[in-house]
Amino acid sequence: MGYWDLPEGTDCVEKTWITTKLGTALGLVGSAYHIVAFQPDSAMAALQRATNTTVTMATMGAIFGMATCLSAQAREAPDDPLNYFIGGCASGIFLGARTHSAMTGTSACLGLGTLAFFTKVGKMEGWKLAGPPKL
User: Fold this and answer.
1) Which residues contact 11 (CB under 8 A, 6 or more apart)?
2) Which terminus, N or C, of the chain has the lesser number of Cβ atoms within 10 Å?
3) What pLDDT sits at residue 130?
């Protein structure tokens, strides 16, 4: 079952598990590209870099999933895109805390929150990024 198949504001554990798995996958892929592009000095450094990136992205996914679901429950507005902004912003704040930078946290909060907000709006209104090919 996918993330969009579950009703908003319900089954928070399942939704959080799905976003955590997605964050983990993105972290693994991103760290693999980073290791290839900027080769570390040793295998241990590569392992540390991959672990650091993957755990950070997995945590951001978990924070997004839980914050989005809990805000939908607390606000009693399950389909409100503001819930997604709250989840994205919470993930951005974690990134700022992780990097010990208030500017990174603020920028990531606004950026990820806005991206999540418009993702939800696009899903609700049926926006398409790409259509079928024109022959």
Assistant:
1) 69
2) C
3) 83
Residue with tokens 């972290």: 27
43-75 and 12-37 helices, crossing angle to 10°:
150
Are residues 70 and 12 in contact, defined by beta-carbon separation less than 8 angstroms? yes
Residue position matching structure tokens 């319900």: 10
Q: What distance in Å separates the CA atoms of residue 102 and residue 40, rounded to the nearest whole number?
A: 28
Taking the chain (135 residues) in consecutive chunks of 10 residues, what is each chunk's mean pLDDT?
87 94 96 95 95 96 96 92 96 96 97 96 90 78
Residue 11 burial (C-beta neighbours within 10 Å; 0-12, 13-18, 19+): middle
- The encoded tokens of residue 89 equal 């912003």
Chain-centre distance for alpha carbon 30: 13
